[in-house]
């Protein structure tokens, strides 16, 4: 027996993007049905490193990340919990003078976007962050970037949307989505059929297949950032650490555990990933190099997830080029946690006002669909990308 | 012909009997043992130099213990025995094994998981007071180093181990202040017909009870714990029985509610699991021979499902025969049938035992909100219940994400069962319906600076 629902906006995907879109739409009273295949915030949004960082993003993401920074500042009002969000500062390290020059150039390019980057030479670093390894050349400090707990934050967006009246359905796997000329028809097997005026494709690593079903094939791939966490240690570090060029990133939570990411897990099925034995050794070795204090610590867990990635590491965000009323927001390329709330807000603006107050042209889906799909076959960039790069 | 490189994880009764059957057909298995000497938990050997006889260490079971130890001794030249080896990760056909601070990749073509079990514990007020041990832990202290956990000990919980360990402590010279059984006398009476299938086991149980009673040890049934008393050290335990609350003085408490299979590796290797009603827990899906859902991986002993040491010997050998059969080696089909018949008989006795010592299903519900469930992360029962109520968490992994339960050093190995019971009660579902924690490597904590060998030795298959 198929249940049929009529609504204004249907959303596929209850990650931080889809759920925050639902939340902002409900704040304006728009009827919303959100369909999540698993549990809200259980996939990439909930298992990522938890970096809440503007530093390191490309110029095209600056307005979006700035807006997100404001939204993170209102997190308890938005989702009802603090999500362990702290503006601890984000320190990006350089291990060579060349990398230091890149950090300097980045600082110069991004002036005016409110990051207030502070360049620190080796001496200043060892004064302020004595626990760093000896081989650091310098760093760039972004005082108001920080970190949060994705396990708590991302599901809370779903709950907040639900509390404002969004019809949030978990464990509902969308099997088809189409437009019949007047309405979108989104089906979950024989169980459920949702008809809506607008459709938001926020399905993360699985979004490419919905885009393709609307005739907009894009070269989205799945990536599996590798993470590990240590046992609780005495707190020595408040900042979130990254490295110019990517490769490894680390933070310490209030309880004392160090969360460290770097490298990749491996796919273990169409929708699953695992840490991957080949890479965990490298991650441990890199971690003790970056943070010698970890020499005596124990790792208690490795994990990874499934994230959507685009070749240029920018999301696809904006209206469909083919189907009016369809909006895409996916492929956040391992750097979506911080901008997620702003992406959701942009989607709500696109629905309600027909335009975004933030420039999002760089994220148009046409940049791929127009390219005759040559890019689809393009192998993933060999340059190592992580949540913390570029 | 393809090369068969079998690996056995665990050198308890299941692992040793599996090795014996493989060696008999000319194979040379690698045996990875977390212990320092073979025997597993049940037939754990003291460190070299300890001079206690097997009959003192293992009581009625000393002949079985000796047989397992002797078998392993005879096999040593024909197997690759690696004691002190923690298998912390498993993927594909490779195991990551930590030994003396170095991690080595160990390849295999076939794998027998004989990983054993640990105590199943449910928390109660004061359970974190120094001096509170699990039943199995208290027995290990006695067997391994001749230590008692205290001089005046209360044994609480249910299962055959309860009376056995109490007896062993009393024999070793410790004062047994009381044996408090959560099951009722009527449970054991009702199980009597089934227990008659195993007259030896029944006689031993009755002997322990009789001996304890004859030596003035109070035995109580139908008991529920109220609280452990004491600050720096246990000073007593109060419990409820027939609506009355009583207190017994003691300086240590050993407690446990049967056992819980160690299944992390089976989980990492992608074996399917099923809810095992008798164990009230998730165990790997297997056929009568011990084949898991993954070809080439076999499960045996208490790590496959709780069945005790005798069954472990049988299931270890049976799994090895299945391995031989699957590799087209010679195997004794008749022996396989005999083993399966004995395992089936053992299973009927297990049914009776479960009836005699049922799991106290109401315990989890009565755990006070401020009682810590997950001691690694200091998560209380109240936190779990509130998360279930406020966020709609109905499933173990969701509960873990929202509360940190099972996220600490033990990764849910110790607290997972209790958390599942509390969640099931809180949301009005059966334990089978709240799922099981997904496992991630490492199985146990490993040093960050562990030296990893990047590539496994070559295997030709």
UniProtKB/TrEMBL annotation, chain A:
<dbReference type="GO" id="GO:0016491">
    <property type="term" value="F:oxidoreductase activity"/>
</dbReference>
<dbReference type="InterPro" id="IPR036188">
    <property type="entry name" value="FAD/NAD-bd_sf"/>
</dbReference>
<feature type="domain" description="FAD dependent oxidoreductase">
    <location>
        <begin position="9"/>
        <end position="350"/>
    </location>
</feature>
<keyword id="KW-0560">Oxidoreductase</keyword>
<protein>
    <submittedName>
        <fullName>FAD-dependent oxidoreductase</fullName>
        <ecNumber>1.-.-.-</ecNumber>
    </submittedName>
</protein>
<dbReference type="Pfam" id="PF01266">
    <property type="entry name" value="DAO"/>
</dbReference>
<dbReference type="InterPro" id="IPR006076">
    <property type="entry name" value="FAD-dep_OxRdtase"/>
</dbReference>
Automatic annotation (TrEMBL), chain B:
<dbReference type="Pfam" id="PF07992">
    <property type="entry name" value="Pyr_redox_2"/>
</dbReference>
<dbReference type="InterPro" id="IPR051691">
    <property type="entry name" value="Metab_Enz_Cyan_OpOx_G3PDH"/>
</dbReference>
<dbReference type="Pfam" id="PF04324">
    <property type="entry name" value="Fer2_BFD"/>
</dbReference>
<dbReference type="InterPro" id="IPR017224">
    <property type="entry name" value="Opine_Oxase_asu/HCN_bsu"/>
</dbReference>
<dbReference type="InterPro" id="IPR023753">
    <property type="entry name" value="FAD/NAD-binding_dom"/>
</dbReference>
<protein>
    <submittedName>
        <fullName>NAD(P)/FAD-dependent oxidoreductase</fullName>
    </submittedName>
</protein>
<dbReference type="InterPro" id="IPR007419">
    <property type="entry name" value="BFD-like_2Fe2S-bd_dom"/>
</dbReference>
<dbReference type="InterPro" id="IPR036188">
    <property type="entry name" value="FAD/NAD-bd_sf"/>
</dbReference>
<feature type="domain" description="FAD/NAD(P)-binding">
    <location>
        <begin position="7"/>
        <end position="312"/>
    </location>
</feature>
<feature type="domain" description="BFD-like [2Fe-2S]-binding">
    <location>
        <begin position="372"/>
        <end position="424"/>
    </location>
</feature>
<keyword id="KW-0560">Oxidoreductase</keyword>
<dbReference type="InterPro" id="IPR041854">
    <property type="entry name" value="BFD-like_2Fe2S-bd_dom_sf"/>
</dbReference>
